[in-house]
Design brief:
With 293 residues, the protein is of the alpha/beta class. It has twelve helices and nine strands. The structure holds nicotinamide-adenine-dinucleotide.
Amino acid sequence: MKVGFIGLGNMGAPMARNLAAAGHDVAGFDIAAQVPEGVDAAASAAAAAAGREVAVTMLPDGGILREVADEIIPAMGPGAIMLDCSTVDVESARSVAERARSAGVQALDAPVSGGIGGAEAGTLTFMVGGSGDAVKAVMPLFDVMGQKAVHCGPSGNGQAAKICNNMILGATMIATCEAFALADKLGLDRQAMYDVVSTSSGYSWTMNAYCPAPGVGPASPADNDYQPGFAAELMLKDLRLSQQAAEAVDADTPIGACATGIYAAFVEDEGGRGKDFSAMLPRFAARNRPAAR
Ligand code: NAD
């Protein structure tokens, strides 16, 4: 397929490289990053998208996505598909889709899970909002960049699925880490804690697949001095998006709100920026119970 790719950062570069390596004709643009091997450099976002069947975007946030959408939609032909893989707020995803539709362009929001490793290996999971026809049309691209694409419903629903998943992930990581820190203080060995919980009703992905305790469970960022992995500030971004969405639809999410506050303190005041989100364990391990709650 003829593909434009805008946003060639940590995630976008390997995704675009994989598309080119699979034989797709890819033109790429980024305001700062290098164009990866096999991708033709375009002079602007509009130039990368012009005349392409699909324009993929992989950008930092909803504000930038809206700006780029304003640039590329007029350059795209009727029937072309704008495929946004960034993680953004539901509102921006729906507004960009509406803007595209009014110009005869189809829009999909398709945020991913799997991180930089998944982008490099072509094993991402896509959570997709938009029309079934458009999803079918871009399936060959999902097949190269990922291992699974779930159609979640109309525009915005991909972002909704992503932030609900990551709200669970952030809260579960905190629960797992505070339990490990409590176990430490109760004199329980971390390996014993893992052996029990990973096979008991407290098990979770954060315990079983991404254990925050170094040397325990399968290899994870904890075994590499908490180098990300999935950085704490990206977890904070997704938690904030969950709270923005909850606010917009008047949903009560007390645990999500609490997790957002804890990651905000960790990233902004406690040196957590640049560390994996599982570095919540040494954070709890170094603390005592607050005086009054
Ligand atoms: P990144 O900052 O490495 O890449 C974003 C790129 O967009 C940068 O290279 C930047 O120069 C470029 N950019 C910014 N404004 C632009 C513009 N106007 N035109 C063209 N390019 C522009 O971020 P990333 O880690 O690649 O993440 C991209 C998206 O994927 C984010 O929404 C993030 O939340 C999401 N995501 C990231 C991960 C991860 O592990 N890194 C995992 C899942 C989802």
